Amino acid sequence: MSHLAIYTGSFDPITLGHLDVLDRSRALFDKVILAIGINPNKPPLFSIEERKRHAETLVARLLRERPQGARVRVEAYQGLTIDFARKVGAAAIVRGIRNVTDLASECQLAITNRQVAGVETVFIVTGENFAYVSSSLIKQIAAFGGDLKRLDTLVPPEVIAALEEKQQDPRNPLGRMAIDGAAD
After folding, report:
1. Which helix (H) or strand (E) holds 7?
2. From the candidates 18, 54, 95, 139, which is the catalytic residue?
3. Is 42 assigned a catalytic role?
4. pLDDT tens track of the chain, all 184 residues?
5. Are 97 and 12 in contact (CB under 8 A)?
């Protein structure tokens, strides 16, 4: 019997903390899908296509550098995570935990997913180097014109380049915020 897990999130943008959790999950399951979803409570910075492209590039590099462990594929989905989990036959949903606040909110979701869909959730505590990084924090730093090169221990270089591109684009909300923030 093969055990498939889905590691879900908006990954907007994907961080080294996300990749750390993904790599740790590869030791626990036979197959893992990095499942990029849409969070209706968070306006996206990157389109789902951009997020998928970033994730595919970074996952391919991870698999080259660390071939041991489960294979990983990247998929985007819409709708409820439990519906996606059922569709792909997932045995578990993987969620990264950084702190007690994450644990409290994730427990509520895990219990609901188990009751509604019969799908278990596996929590993986992120490495200590990534305990305070979040996609939201990265977006805030970029929005206010922060030096993105200083984030190189938290975010892959490809994502830093994509954030810099968004900062320079006055048509993009991030670029407008960076310009406005720099003007003050």
Report:
1. strand 4-9
2. 18
3. yes
4. 789 999 999 999 999 999 999 999 999 999 999 999 998 888 899 999 999 999 999 999 999 999 999 999 999 999 999 999 999 999 999 999 998 888 999 999 999 999 988 999 999 999 999 988 999 999 999 988 889 999 999 999 999 999 999 988 877 767 666 555 544 4
5. no
135 is catalytic: yes
Domain 4-130 has CATH 3.40.50.620: yes
Find, among 81, 178, 91, the residue nearest to 139 by Cα. Answer: 178
87 has catalytic annotation: no
**Domain ranges within the chain, ordered by starting residue:** 4-130, 135-183
In the structure encoding, which two tokens stand for residue 77, read together?
């989905």
| Single pTM value for the model | 0.91
**Does residue 18 have an active-site annotation?**
yes
Q: Hey, what amino acid is at 32?
A: V
